[in-house]
Amino acid sequence: MTRFTLTPPLIALILAVILFFAGGLINPDFVNPAQATNIVRLAAFLGIIAAGQTLVILSGGEGIDLSIGAVVTMGAILTFRLTGGDNSLIWVGLLASCGAGVVIGLINGIGIALLRIPPLVMTLGMTGVVQGTILVLTQGEMIGATPPLMRQLIAEPLILGIPGVIFIWAMVGIGMWVLLERTTYGKQLFAIGVNRTVARFSGVRVQWIVVLTYILSGLLAGFGGFILLGFAQTVFLQLGNNYLFPSIAAVVVGGTLLSGGKGSYWGTMSGALVLTLIDSLLRAAGLEQAYQLIVFGVILLALIVVYGRQRSLRQ
Amino acid sequence: MGSSPPNRLPDSWAACKTMALTLSARSLVKRYGGVIALRDGSLEIQSGEVVALVGANGSGKSTLSKIITGAVVPNGGHLLLDGTPIQFPNPQAARKRGIAVVYQELSLIPDMTVAENIWLSHEPLRFGIAVNRGAMRDRTQALLDLFAGTISPKLQPDTPVTALPPDERQVVEIVKAISSDPRLIILDEATASLDTNQVNRLFELVKTWKEAGKAVIIITHRMEEIFRVADKATVLRSGESVGTVTIANTDEKTIVGMMIEGAVTPEQIRIPTTALESHVRLDVKRLNGGRLRNVSFTLHDGELLGLGGLQGQGQVDLLLALFGLIPHSGEVILNGKSVHFRHPADAMKQQVAYVPGDRGTEGLLFIRSIFENMQLPSWRKYGIVHRRHAARKDALASAADLQMVYASLDDPVSSLSGGNAQKVVIGKWLLRQPKLLLLGDPTKGVDVGAKGEFYALLRQLTEAGTAILFYSSDDSELLGLCSRVLVFHEGGIRTELSGENLTRANLVAASMGTAHEHD
């Protein structure tokens, strides 16, 4: 029934496997189950954070969420501070980080869908607002602690030596698949990504879908910040920034069109694996930090150029 | 009138007469794939003449004018300019030889100023390189002064085009065309968005151009305008020039007679009208919005009501308003209830469906699958987490009903032929079993075989009691299928044709806005 075709997510996944074994050539210690688990664990954080970015990019209309990094930071700091290291207050942290994400996403969505501010400008501006808010709330002092249970549930081996975050990522993956492939929201999201006029002519309330998409993006980023705290154990103002650019790159490497309307979350998951592997490989190769960055950037550009060729199919 | 004749022409025009011109188009042919847009396009014009180009929808008049302006390259025939054969590869080449055109679809760049738009690509230069902004401004002012008194003071050389209303944009479009001091000016439906004073001024100008030795081709949907300004009329019918008449020696009736095919009558597949005693599905009273002006009519269950007239006279606006796509006022009574739809989703809840004419930009998501396209309006009914099998079964059944030819429902729509793609657009609405179906020129660009199937489908639907509002740019479809046709002209219903009165002659006459005798 389904014909076998080499889709971008599959290419990314194959690339991930090749990269993993290529790592063995550079450093024989690279290829072992513990290392594999570790890489998937690292990719899981990026993957969860990039889930919202996937939705935003799919929505088209030059959709992009640059506020993700700041929201991740916000989520982590809120959890850090509100729990104060108390296991019984984890749910407060979870609600606060997700709630903050929803509010920020709602404002982004209103600015973009109703006030027609370009997503790039709106979410970039929002980054500044969120960072400023963090400073106001914390007065620059990072008081608080990470509840020990979060570390155990997220970062440490949970079942069969597999860390909890990998299970969480798998659940996010299933949830995203259902959302995109089995709900009206998902189908309408693809539709507005391809052509908003056609979507409207088919009864889709385009602006509502756009607002909802930015809300989901904020929610997932806030949740990502919560999860990240369980791994990082500490917070600082730039905590989430390192995930912003990779979150976009993971989506694109996973084969989702930057112009929207076509793509998948499992592509983003593969993309997150590829990016994490490249990063780990470059570290294993013992390159200086500066060269790591350069090589990482060049590989990304190369991948995007290769995928960019698809876009001509749209015409 | 009363205004002084415009004599403050730019210096470069300096009262001197325009270089003489003769242009003749002989047996021009233009094919698009298998469709022949122009079979035998011929036209003669020379300096000091105003020739009207007339024809019904799809008669080839815009194709002919586009060949003359270099926008379309012909497949055959000859174009002679001043006696020598010529073919313009692009509009710039035609403009260099003194041919300028004013289109109804505006070609202005909204974010640039009036002056910048007018002088785009032929800016007055200082020392041959630098744009002389002062001269550009002055000359623009001189050009705009030609319309002084009919335009608002806001229309200045430095006004951005985006700040102008449609009629003043059209004025800018006109002065842009004459800014290059052309020998031949083509006015393609240029009066459609002008008000009466502006039209009067334009026609005064046409007379001065004529006296200055320019040639003018005018394409208009208003018969009255032809008799006001033209010296001759060249009539096109089904892509052929059928003759040229001198306006002084003819009347409207003769021209209309030339526009319609005399002997050939289309096969009558008219759908029987038992509908009029049935339930009133739709009652529209004084509907305004978009181009619509006080449109009122009723539509019964099981009726196929045609919307005719030349293109762009408000037929599509009516469908858009009824589907909640454009703001509108007036009363719409659907199934006995007063409704006001602000979004298609509202209309869909009341079992209204709209099949747009432009598949590419309004009907289909080309990179998505046939399945997703067909179910896009209907997903909600398959639950919060979709019952995928049910959705698929429904789509398969609909595709089979429509005799759609495809490999897999998961293939992208872009893999389908035009006729099959159109079936997806129709199928996605039939899945919702609409009670009121709005059709916006649904057979445009569809092959003959698929058209036949579509006509049969319309019959099935009306027999099942669906009320259909059917806009078609193909007059023979309206004549062949509908028992009642509303003819639109400039946003209003010019007349309603049915029974004996529903003839091609009456349809064409009403399309051109001429008075015609019926009842």
Core attributes:
heterodimer, A: 315 residues, mainly alpha, ABC transporter involved in vitamin B12 uptake, BtuC, globular, B: 519 residues, alpha/beta, Rossmann fold, six-stranded mixed sheet, 17 helices, 22 strands, 25% strand, disordered N terminus
User: Helical residue percent of chain A?
Assistant: over 70%
**Multimer state:** heterodimer
The whole-number mean of residue pLDDT values of chain A reads: 88
N- and C-termini, Cα separation of chain A: 27 Å
Strands of the widest sheet of chain A, in order across it, are 1-2
Whole-number total of structural domains of chain A: 1
Task: Specify the overall morphology of chain A.
Answer: globular
**Helix/strand-derived class of chain A?**
mainly alpha
Number of strands of chain A: 2
User: Which range does the strand content of chain A fall in?
Assistant: under 5%
The coarse overall form of chain B would be globular
Low-confidence segments of chain B, given as residue ranges, are 1-16, 263-268
CATH superfamily of the largest domain in chain B: P-loop containing nucleotide triphosphate hydrolases
CATH class of chain A: Mainly Alpha
Q: How many individual helices of chain A?
A: 13
CATH topology of chain A: ABC transporter involved in vitamin B12 uptake, BtuC
Q: Which architecture of chain A per CATH?
A: Orthogonal Bundle
In the sheet with the most strands of chain B, the strands line up as 6-9-10-3-11-12
What is the terminal separation of chain B in angstroms?
Answer: 38 Å
Main beta-sheet annotation of chain B: 6 strands, mixed
